[in-house]
Q: What sequence folds into this?
């Protein structure tokens, strides 16, 4: 068992105890690709990274890109630091070190979780181009994910994992416009997962 698998197993046990009143339910786990991938999800709650990471298998080593302020949060910060596989990002400036660490992880066949909106939104907002840029530069697929923002007692928090896809397939070097176009497609795919989730929730509620 690797260090990551050990940390994952122990921390998931802690998470299950802490989230017993809002359990996790995963759809589309069969879509998870082998090897490196950029996991791109909407972001509405502080607990989103944990629900998403624990939707994957422990063999899927996932690095989380998170703003460095989270380190000082009492519970989430302590758990993320203990897990150890976090790339801390200095917001408001060009964090070259964080970008290099993320690219290194992807080139090494590992997965990277990014919230492309950059901050929390109740509704899906506009995505930033960093996630698409990293996927294109390393040649790994993007895996769109939608997590329900609802955290209701004794109702599961639903995570929907979409189909992986290559954001850029042209035989040339991508430019800034390509990154923007790829980001729009990525956000549209996350919104499509939301629409499917809303339809399912509406059907179940009838």
A:
């Amino acid at each position: 068992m690797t260090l990551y698998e050990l940390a994952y197993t122990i921390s998931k046990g802690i998470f299950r105890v802490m989230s017993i009143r809002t359990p996790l339910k995963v759809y589309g786990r069969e879509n998870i690709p082998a090897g490196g991938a950029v996991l791109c999800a909407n972001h509405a709650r502080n607990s989103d990274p944990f629900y998403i990471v624990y939707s994957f298998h422990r063999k899927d080593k996932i690095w989380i890109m998170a703003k460095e302020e989270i380190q000082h949060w009492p519970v989430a910060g302590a758990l993320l630091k203990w897990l150890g596989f976090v790339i801390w990002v200095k917001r408001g400036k060009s964090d070259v070190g964080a970008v290099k660490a993320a690219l290194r992880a992807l080139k090494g066949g590992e997965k990277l979780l990014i919230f492309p909106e950059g901050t929390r939104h109740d509704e899906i907002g506009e995505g930033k181009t960093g996630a698409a840029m990293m996927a294109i530069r390393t040649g790994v697929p993007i895996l769109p994910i939608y997590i329900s923002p609802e955290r209701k007692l004794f109702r599961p928090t639903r995570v929907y994992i979409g189909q992986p896809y290559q954001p850029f397939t042209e035989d040339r070097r991508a430019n800034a416009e390509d990154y923007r176009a790829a980001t729009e497609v990525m956000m549209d795919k996350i919104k499509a997962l939301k629409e499917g989730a809303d339809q399912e929730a509406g059907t179940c509620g009838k």
Q: What stands out?
A: The mean pLDDT is 89. The longest helix spans residues 176-204.
